[in-house]
Design brief:
- The protein is mainly alpha-helical and 85 residues long.
- It has two domains: 53 residues, Arc Repressor Mutant, subunit A (Orthogonal Bundle); 31 residues.
- The longest helix has 29 residues.
- The chain is rod-shaped and about 80 Å long.
- It starts with 6 loop residues before the first helix and ends with a helix.
Length: 85
Protein backbone atom coordinates (compact mmCIF):
# COMPACT_ATOMS: atom_id res chain seq x y z
CA UNK A 1 0.00 0.00 0.00
CA UNK A 2 1.20 3.52 -0.81
CA UNK A 3 2.29 6.23 1.55
CA UNK A 4 -0.50 8.51 2.86
CA UNK A 5 0.03 12.02 1.53
CA UNK A 6 -1.05 15.03 3.56
CA UNK A 7 -3.67 17.44 2.17
CA UNK A 8 -0.96 20.10 2.05
CA UNK A 9 1.24 17.84 -0.09
CA UNK A 10 -1.65 17.19 -2.45
CA UNK A 11 -2.50 20.89 -2.70
CA UNK A 12 1.12 21.82 -3.41
CA UNK A 13 1.40 19.01 -5.96
CA UNK A 14 -1.67 20.29 -7.80
CA UNK A 15 -0.34 23.85 -7.70
CA UNK A 16 2.95 22.70 -9.22
CA UNK A 17 1.18 20.66 -11.89
CA UNK A 18 -1.00 23.59 -12.89
CA UNK A 19 1.45 26.48 -12.66
CA UNK A 20 5.02 25.20 -13.08
CA UNK A 21 4.87 24.86 -16.86
CA UNK A 22 6.49 21.44 -16.56
CA UNK A 23 4.94 18.31 -18.05
CA UNK A 24 2.77 16.51 -15.51
CA UNK A 25 4.88 13.38 -15.88
CA UNK A 26 7.96 15.33 -14.76
CA UNK A 27 6.09 16.89 -11.83
CA UNK A 28 4.84 13.46 -10.77
CA UNK A 29 8.33 11.94 -11.09
CA UNK A 30 9.91 14.82 -9.14
CA UNK A 31 7.37 14.38 -6.35
CA UNK A 32 7.65 10.59 -6.31
CA UNK A 33 4.00 9.96 -7.18
CA UNK A 34 2.31 8.29 -10.09
CA UNK A 35 1.07 10.30 -13.05
CA UNK A 36 -2.43 8.87 -12.60
CA UNK A 37 -2.43 9.89 -8.94
CA UNK A 38 -1.44 13.43 -9.83
CA UNK A 39 -4.10 13.47 -12.54
CA UNK A 40 -6.76 12.40 -10.04
CA UNK A 41 -5.68 15.09 -7.59
CA UNK A 42 -5.80 17.76 -10.31
CA UNK A 43 -9.24 16.60 -11.46
CA UNK A 44 -10.52 16.56 -7.87
CA UNK A 45 -9.09 20.03 -7.26
CA UNK A 46 -10.76 21.41 -10.38
CA UNK A 47 -14.08 19.88 -9.31
CA UNK A 48 -13.78 21.32 -5.80
CA UNK A 49 -12.75 24.69 -7.24
CA UNK A 50 -15.84 24.74 -9.43
CA UNK A 51 -18.08 23.88 -6.51
CA UNK A 52 -16.46 26.47 -4.25
CA UNK A 53 -16.58 29.30 -6.76
CA UNK A 54 -19.37 31.77 -7.42
CA UNK A 55 -22.69 30.18 -8.26
CA UNK A 56 -24.37 33.05 -10.08
CA UNK A 57 -25.54 30.78 -12.90
CA UNK A 58 -26.95 28.25 -10.45
CA UNK A 59 -28.68 30.97 -8.45
CA UNK A 60 -30.28 32.40 -11.59
CA UNK A 61 -31.36 28.95 -12.74
CA UNK A 62 -32.81 28.17 -9.32
CA UNK A 63 -34.77 31.44 -9.35
CA UNK A 64 -36.04 30.69 -12.86
CA UNK A 65 -37.12 27.17 -11.87
CA UNK A 66 -38.87 28.42 -8.75
CA UNK A 67 -40.79 30.99 -10.81
CA UNK A 68 -41.70 28.34 -13.39
CA UNK A 69 -42.82 26.00 -10.61
CA UNK A 70 -45.03 28.73 -9.09
CA UNK A 71 -46.63 29.45 -12.48
CA UNK A 72 -47.26 25.75 -13.11
CA UNK A 73 -48.89 25.37 -9.68
CA UNK A 74 -51.15 28.35 -10.38
CA UNK A 75 -52.12 26.88 -13.76
CA UNK A 76 -52.80 23.51 -12.15
CA UNK A 77 -55.00 25.10 -9.51
CA UNK A 78 -56.98 26.98 -12.19
CA UNK A 79 -57.49 23.74 -14.14
CA UNK A 80 -58.57 21.89 -10.99
CA UNK A 81 -61.20 24.55 -10.29
CA UNK A 82 -62.39 24.49 -13.90
CA UNK A 83 -62.83 20.72 -13.97
CA UNK A 84 -64.47 20.59 -10.53
CA UNK A 85 -67.52 22.49 -11.81
Amino acid sequence: MGIKRTPEFRTESVRLALTSGLPRQQVADDLGIGLSTLGKWVASHKHMELMAGPHDDKDRELARLRKENRILREERDILKKATAR
